[in-house]
């Protein structure tokens, strides 16, 4: 265990979060997996604010390499201040130092929380007003809004009847089955080629759950679709995808339904579709509705580079 970790453990982060935001569960095991086991985890970016030895605030950052070979991006992955210590510039001082360290590691921009593939939120939850104001005040600009959607698992799913769904897939020669540990190599290879490294990472996490938390579709011996849950957070669904050629066959609905049924069997009362992409698909075909809205924000710190690009966004 390094010094930084010894000074700030995930157990302390979990306790701080529980005090800071009692409405959202963020247990130690989630923080360990999302932050400490992040392949880019850098303990020199784990910062603590203490008062009389007590942890009153913390910020965690990470640097992600640019897949295109450019300068990396920096992310704030976690930030919380204990309620009794708010509005005393604790977060400001933590972020001053974290941004300074990120810049010293050569990042060209700093973003808040959307540190895919290992992230806690797809951005700043817009209901966290203080956090939104804090980042705005520090010069972070809005890039986009992202959404989580929810599906009530205590009620019958708003999907076509099972017989209809399965007959259509049988006619197309498509088999849907639960992921198996031995799928890791070939599925991982297909995921990387077809869907990129972020989703490949998230599917890998779900595949290693016991039992694997997801389903895949095979046609003529080839992977053509997948859906997973419990990858990012317990009860969070996604990612999921169907190869373009097979879209419109009902396969996407079947993959979602299989996951939602599995989640209900494991005792979940709700599925949170994380960072939902095709929102109308989830709403119309599965009765999902928007549950959380996140602002993705960014501060460009590499001014020279930005000027050279004529101010165009990256
Ligand atoms: C967001 C949070 C970390 C801010 O911590 P803090 O130590 O109180 O923040 P600071 O004192 O450094 O505030 C700096 C600036 O942020 C803005 N700000 C902070 N809290 C605010 C509030 N309640 N309303 C409006 N603006 C606020 C202000 O501009 C403030 O400057 P000012 O006090 O001079 O007006 C804290 O409220 C918190 O822990 N919230 C819950 C966790 C959270 O939302 N984390 C982000 C996860 S998405």
TrEMBL record:
Residues 1-166, 174-310 form the N-acetyltransferase domain. Gene3D superfamilies: 3.40.630.30. InterPro entries: Acyl_CoA_acyltransferase, Bact_Acetyltransf, GNAT_dom. Keywords: Acyltransferase, Transferase. It is an enzyme of class 2 (transferase). Its EC number is 2.3.1.-. One of its GO terms (molecular function) is acyltransferase activity. PROSITE patterns: GNAT (PS51186). The keyword Transferase applies. PANTHER family: AMINOALKYLPHOSPHONATE N-ACETYLTRANSFERASE-RELATED-RELATED (PTHR43877). This is GNAT family N-acetyltransferase. It comes from Carboxydichorda subterranea.
């Amino acid at each position: 265990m390094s010094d930084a970790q010894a000074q700030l453990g995930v157990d302390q982060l979990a306790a701080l979060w529980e005090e800071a935001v009692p409405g959202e569960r963020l247990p130690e095991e989630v923080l360990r997996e999302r932050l400490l086991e992040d392949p880019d985890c850098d303990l020199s970016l784990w910062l603590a604010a203490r008062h009389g030895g007590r942890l009153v605030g913390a910020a965690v950052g990470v640097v992600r390499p640019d897949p295109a070979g450019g300068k990396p991006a920096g992310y704030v992955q976690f930030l919380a201040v204990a309620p009794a210590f708010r509005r005393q510039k604790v977060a400001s001082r933590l972020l001053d130092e974290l941004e300074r360290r990120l810049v010293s590691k050569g990042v060209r921009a700093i973003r808040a929380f959307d540190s895919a593939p290992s992230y806690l939120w797809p951005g700043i939850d817009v209901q966290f007003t203080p956090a939104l104001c804090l980042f705005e005040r520090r010069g972070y600009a809005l890039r986009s809004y992202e959404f989580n959607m929810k599906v009530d698992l205590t009620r019958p799913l708003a999907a076509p009847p099972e017989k209809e769904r399965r007959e259509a897939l049988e006619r197309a020669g498509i088999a849907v089955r639960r992921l198996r540990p031995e799928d890791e190599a070939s599925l991982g290879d297909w995921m990387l080629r077809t869907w990129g490294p972020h989703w490949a990472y998230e599917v890998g996490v779900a595949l290693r759950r016991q039992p694997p938390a997801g389903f895949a579709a095979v046609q003529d011996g080839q992977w053509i679709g997948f859906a997973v849950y419990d990858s990012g957070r317990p009860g969070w669904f996604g990612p999921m995808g169907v190869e373009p050629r097979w879209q419109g066959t009902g396969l996407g609905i079947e993959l979602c339904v299989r996951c939602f049924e599995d989640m209900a069997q494991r005792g979940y009362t709700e599925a949170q579709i994380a960072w939902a992409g095709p929102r109308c698909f989830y709403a119309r075909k599965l009765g999902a509705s928007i549950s959380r809205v996140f602002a993705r924000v960014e501060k460009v710190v590499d001014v020279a580079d930005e000027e050279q690009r004529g101010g165009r966004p990256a």
